[in-house]
Design brief:
three-stranded antiparallel sheet; about 100 residues; about 40% helix; alpha+beta; signal; single chain
Length: about 100
Amino acid sequence: MKKILFAALLLTTGVAGTTELFANSTVKVAAALPKQVQNAFAALQAQYAANNQVLTNVVWTHSGNTYTATFVIVDMSVEDSYTNGSAAFHANGTQVQ
């Protein structure tokens, strides 16, 4: 039994090492959003939630003093209903029109 566990450990280690060797992935950690932007986006989410919609797959980008969220709007009351959307905010939390 110990030999089987040891062999499994070696195989797992070998696979993990091979995966690390060939999977050249880059993970970027986004800078923290200003608190005012977080609050403004939470308010936007609440507006959509009031209409039974959820914002998913949120991706943030930052350029200068503007933070842009790109997302998918899922309407929970309609089957297979989704729309792409985005919203931009200044660092002080005001939404860009």
